[in-house]
Amino acid sequence: MVRQAISDAYRGLISQLQRLTLGIERLLNVVFSQKFNPFYYHGALPNFFLWVLFISGLLLFAYYNPTLERAYPSILYMTNQIPSGALFRAMHRYAADGMMIFVLLHFFRVWFTDRYREYRILPWITGVILFTILFLAGLTGYMLIWDDNSVTLTYVTTNFLQAFPFGGKALAELLIGGSIVTDFTLTRYLFLHLAIPTSMLFFLWWHYLRITRPVTNAPLVLNLMMFGGLLVACGLMPIKVGAPPNLTNPGGVLEIDWLYMLPHGLIANGASLQAAWAVTLGIPVAMLLLPYIQKKQFQGQFAQVVTDNCTGCSLCYHDCPYEAIEMVDRDDDSRFKRLAVVNADRCSNCGLCVGACAFKAIEIPRMTTDVVLKEIQVALAGSTQS
Amino acid sequence: MPVLQVLKVAVAVVFSALGFVGLYLMFNAETLTANNPHEYFRWALGAGLVFVAIGAALTALDKEDNVVTKSEADRS
Amino acid sequence: MNAKKVKVIALVCERSVDFKNRLDNNRCLSECPDVHVIQVPCSGHIQPAMIESALKQGAEGVITTGCRIGDCYYREGNKFLKARLEGERQPKLRASIDRKRIQAYWLSALEYSRFGEMATEFVSFLNTYDAGAGAKS
Hints:
The complex is a heterotrimer of chains A (about 375), B (about 80) and C (about 140). With about 80 residues, chain B is mainly alpha-helical. Chain B is about 65% helix and about 5% strand. Residues about 30-35 of chain B have low confidence and may be disordered. Chain C has helices spanning about 50-55, 75-85, 110-130, and strands spanning about 10-15, 35-40, 60-65, 100-105. The model of chain C is unreliable at about 130-135 (pLDDT under 50).
């Protein structure tokens, strides 16, 4: 009973949020036209920024020098001496923000439009992991600059890590490569900033695994606008280099970037280390639990293949948006060689396979072809009789 | 739909103007450079505006009716 | 009151146009009773054969409606139906079908009024249009 009440209340909330999303999209359709509505490419746009990050990051990597003495001067050098070096730094910086912003949009839209549970659970879980990866990539990026702010960031972060009740000290030592800041710290930061984003590629593959024909690229027009917007941001907010690092007296106030420094921001606003940990861990855990609040829509239902009608044409196999249909060899004495088989866990009961079938060979229980045809017949017959 | 078409062309014109502002920024020195030791930022701003303008103009000029799919005869 | 002949069958995705309080007891549009609405799970669920069947049984026109292209809840349903209607995806709508009798709208749940307008316009077009085999009156 309580379970049902929670499920219903949550469902009501989500449907309101869905109307809000659709309202925003209706406005955007007027501005951008349906074809280029950025809300329809919320999953593809982060990929564009990922490409920008990769290319600009390679150029910065070529000049970065990960030692205590040389890190800050190498940042100064690439900012002030290399032609457009400052521009590439700015692009790397703001593309990360762009990616985070569109990932958040992706997250909220998928959540509000109820596209995150049941057969979509794999993309949801890997999405939470990817979100965490992006967060850590941004955080380590701030550390690499190794100006005054990075030193403060290192102190706040190690303090934060040490407060973790289980092996917090080890976590802090893992981050800075020892118990104190040395040359290895910078090498470690560089390693983390390369390894963490690279692991994103693996999770992206997983993210797409159960999705047929994932939309990984937005239309050229949108990408142009995103690139333009990125360059405008680079022009309006020139990238800065902070004061030189001061390891003996780092007491500067940390400049908080809320996109990547959630615990730091909480601590700066007076939260205790434990509270910051609770929130930081609580958010991804809550995200992972979200899909289980609402009851399943079609308990135990999935598309049914009518074996006698199936010709093995594999149209449904190609059209299934969640790779739920497999073509197997037939072992009965049919004159057809192949047969469609549905994987129940992956099936969304959407009926795209029904629309793809010209032989009434696949049906979803909640609305079969015959029910639709009957309704058409009744509607037309009822009217002619009178 | 003529009103909508006119509106779209108007939007395209406005964004093209924005593009020209971008080109001006790209190719004219003294602007916006006072605080920058380099001109890359001005260049970036200009180029960015040009890109946004191109994208927006292409969007505005997208003539296809996206809401209704009519017969093939109608489309030809 | 004489029940009027239903002219148009509308096959509508249950997630696109919201028909709450918009239909009469016969599931026809209250503002345009010539249009009978049948809600399906997704516009991608609609087989071309369903459209053909409706026309064969005396419907003067068929409307199919899905969500905005780009926003299918099941990712690709509306794109597939669009391609089928345009003859670019199997199973295609038969070539002999009079395309003027078929319209497809792509509208979100908030855009009922747009649906009502276009459906009414379609019905008045069908009233003046009598070419082809599908028309019986």
